[in-house]
């Protein structure tokens, strides 16, 4: 009984130390740099999927990555907050030579995307798990 209590107290103190030192629990989301290549890949995927499912006539493009977090699971979960802008490029004119990257922006949305990237077995794939966007 005393052994179980001592073990319990030890585990609680270790967990408290981890939370104090790292600011998050093991297995939770951690802040990562918005400049990382993997973050840009996740954002590119998320915006492409958003363009497919959103009820807008024009394409959106990422303008600014506000925040990025990752969580290691059986792969990686990314949570990114991104400002995206509605371009002049029409969705239904895929054959047109509209330059999305250099297109002017009319409407800006702030979106939170949750993207899952699988382990590379043999290739990684992405899934857009959640998204929520609000006008800025």
Compute the separation of the termini in Å: 58 Å
Low-confidence stretches: 11-22
Morphology = globular
> How large is the count of helical segments?
2
Largest sheet: 5 strands, antiparallel
- CA radius of gyration is 20 Å
- The H/E string reads HEHEEEE
Trace the largest sheet across and list its strands. 1-2-3-4-5
Beta-strand portion reads: 35-45%
Q: State the oligomer.
A: single chain
The residue-averaged pLDDT reads: 85
In total, how many beta strands? 5
- Which structural category fits the helices and strands? alpha+beta
Helix content: 25-40%
Give your account of this protein's structure.
This protein has 136 residues and is α+β, with helices and mostly antiparallel strands. Helices cover 28% and strands 40% of the residues. It is built from 2 helices and 5 strands, in the order αβαββββ. It has a 5-stranded antiparallel β-sheet with strand order 1-2-3-4-5, with helices on one face. β4 and β5 form a beta hairpin. The longest helix has 21 residues, at 2-22. It is globular, with a radius of gyration of 20 Å. Residues 11-22 have low confidence and may be disordered.
């Amino acid at each position: 009984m005393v052994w179980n209590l001592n073990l319990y107290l030890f585990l609680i103190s270790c967990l408290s130390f981890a939370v104090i030192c790292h600011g998050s629990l093991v297995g939770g989301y951690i802040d990562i740099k918005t400049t990382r290549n993997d973050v840009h890949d996740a954002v590119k995927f998320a915006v492409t999927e958003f363009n497919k499912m959103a009820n807008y006539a024009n394409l959106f493009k990422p303008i600014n990555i506000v925040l990025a977090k990752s969580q290691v699971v059986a792969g990686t979960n990314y949570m990114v907050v991104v400002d995206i802008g509605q371009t002049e490029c029409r969705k239904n004119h895929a054959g047109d030579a509209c330059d999305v990257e250099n297109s002017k922006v009319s409407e800006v949305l702030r979106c939170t995307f949750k993207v899952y990237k699988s382990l590379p077995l043999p290739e990684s794939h992405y899934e857009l798990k959640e998204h929520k966007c609000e006008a800025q």
